Amino acid sequence: MSHDNLVDIVCERIQFDLAKLKGNELEKIEVDSFNLSDFWNQFEAAVQGLSNEVTKIGFACGQPPYPTSGVLAAMLQDLVQCYSVMRDLYLVLPEEVGATVYQATTSAVVNIVAALLAIVRTLLDLSEKGAKERLTLTGTFWEACAAVETLPRNNLLATLGVLEGEIGLAVDAQEELTQTIEEDREATSELGSEDNFELWTNHERDLATKAVGLVKVTKVCLQKVHKAVVEHGSCSSPQNCAELDTTAAASRTVSPALDDFVSELYHPVDVPTALENAGKLAAVLRSLLATVQGYHFKQGINKDLINKLLVFVSHNHQKLDPSVANPLPQLNNLTVTT
Asked: Which compartment or compartments is the protein found in (predicted)?
């Protein structure tokens, strides 16, 4: 078999798997007994084994004399074998471990397989140019493999990772808005006129200043949910895993709403849109709190705390838009058990 045909066959196999992986269409492998800790030990070893084979090929094909078709065939056979071990181990991972950790693992595997495919394709060009491209792509592949070491090992850790990411974005948004307000204040002082067309109008400035409160309460809501999950969260049962997944999904809706809200506060401000976005952000926060109110970690975010957070959300929303209906009389209707 010619060199090109051999590489094409391997590429087709990997590309087929990659398409199926992206669509979550590869058939799962069922085992009699699954142990999550054992899975991670075996999966990490398999990824390392695949990385070693890629490195071997990189050295062998890095400069003349390049390997013969027979030698390359043997190396590709070892590569495919290691790849198959890694892929099949991933297919053993059941979705019942929790959607959040499962999706994170799937994403990592997709990145590894995509990087592997790119490297194998370069073997069609055994030249100095191909070697340089292969070296760059190998670095990308190593990064994809290294990412496995930082994957959350269970659904609790995966959910905490999502919450921490959302908290980080909220912190960034608060710092960004606060800095913009300070820069506007300094520019206004230097220019000596609050009517400069490059600066906020008085109404816009007042709106942005009040908006800081809603951004802060967004951060606080996320932090309180995170604290409750840290202290009382568990992934020891399918029900708990499902609740963590729903918590992660609800948390992910916060940053897009927050970004839309803060982005609309730059001069010139479309005030109706800014107020509409404030309402959407407040609604997302209420939805997040309603989502977690009865979950297994409710001991850390009980009825009283949820009520206080809802008051903070409504108060800061109404500071921006006094015309909104006051939902506070409905607080007593919350059915949160402690």
From this structure: Cytoplasm; Nucleus
Cα distances (angstroms) measured from residue 95 to each of 145, 154, 201, 242, 245: 21, 12, 53, 11, 12
Cβ-based neighbours of 310, under 8 Å, separated by 6 or more: 286, 289, 327, 328, 331, 334
Render pLDDT for 196-246 as a digit per residue (tens, 0 to 9).
667 898 899 999 999 999 999 999 999 999 999 999 999 999 999 999 999
CA–CA–CA angle 137, 106, 81 (5° rounding): 60
Residue 163 and residue 265 share a domain: yes
User: Number of helices and strands (H, E) in the chain?
Assistant: 11, 0
Same domain, 48 and 189: no
- 327 by Cβ neighbours in 10 Å (0-12 / 13-18 / 19+) ranks as middle
DSSP result, 57-106? HHHHTSSSSPPPHHHHHHHHHHHHHHHHHHHHHHHHS-GGG-HHHHHHHH
Q: What is the pLDDT of residues 281-302, one digit of tens each?
A: 999 999 999 999 999 999 999 9
Indicate if 35 and 129 belong to the same structural domain. yes
CATH of the domain at 253: 1.20.1410.10
Find tokens 């916060």 and name the residue.
254
DSSP codes joined into one string, 184-207: HHHHHHHHT-TT-TTS--HHHHHH
**Are residues 314 and 183 located together in one domain of the fold?**
yes
Task: Print the domain residue range for 186.
Answer: 155-320
CA–CA separation, 189 vs 38, rounded Å?
A: 63
Residue 136's CATH number = 1.20.1420.10
Q: Are 303 and 336 in contact (CB under 8 A)?
A: yes
Cβ(172)–Cβ(254) below 8 Å: no
pLDDT band at 329 (very low <50, low <70, confident <90, very high): very low
